[in-house]
Here is the input.
Amino acid sequence: MNQFRIKRLVDQAFEQAELAKEDIKALLTADIAELDYLLQQADQKRKEVCGDEVHLRAIIEFSSYCKQNCHYCGLRKENHKLERYQLKKDEIIETAGMASELGYQTVVLQSGEDEYPAAEIAEIIKEIKNTTDLAITLSLGERDFAAYKLWREAGADRYLLKHETADQALYEKYHPGMSFENRIESLNYLKTIGYQIGSGVIIDLPGQTPEILAEDLLLSQDLKLDMIGSGPFIPHEQTPLAESKTGTVEMTLKFTALSRLLLPLAHIPATTALGTIDAEGRQKALLAGANVVMPNVTDSKYREKYQIYPEKICVNEEAGDCRQCIGGIIASLGREVSQTKGHSLR
Ligand code: SF4
Here is the structure.
């Protein structure tokens, strides 16, 4: 694509936060070497909207049990080689307390689609709220609407539910027994009852096209997401997609930059998956529109077992080391760790 057209499209996205599907697709299809202006303007928009603060969200991976069978995920039910674990209520509360002492402002309670009792999760939320000043994000997959409501009433602030791909056929191909409509309905319901909602996509999922990724961005605008994440596909040995190709840093950065321009108020994480395929991946995303990092605070004895994809970085680190390491990365970019909760900018 010629530089004149790139500039025109990027300027339009910067000024209006709008682009036609064909134009998004054209930018996603361009070679990354031609797209310096896109990345620079996404960084500029991030600076204008979010400033130089980076929000840290501490993840507690409290259960690796999952009843689903997503084709790309190492936690899928049919991965019988994975040793499963589930933290007890007190361990989760204790880990959240430790995250708070380390200076985190948000804790993300994450699990596979486990059958962890909804009432017990509500008690955990209440106890964390009573004993710390943390904001709470839930990332527990699809549960029934009564559970979403119960947890919101217990004090949960945000819900993270990735839609993974906006293409219904592709979604249903890789999520046996699950429905794309229910996914979207869940996100809309969560928003209606007062959660700040986050979603996101897998970049370079086999069968995905730039056109589908353009639809992902348009869907994300329709959903009025408070957070949008994108991580490259990484094949896991024990899944049906074991032989597929790893996603690219380039497409992930293009998607991140377009996310910032088309959803300027969204929080955008520099994902661990990107840091896994490229040692500098998170830094590159932070320079292409991202303003969030999500370090792991789960006890290191469990980390290896929460294997959505292989070779994940930081599995042998302790929570305190991760906090220091991430702080160093952020400082090296001339940015600073936020001391606020980083609620929705909407
Ligand atoms: S992506 Fe989520 S729901 Fe699907 S198998 Fe993995 S943990 Fe389970």
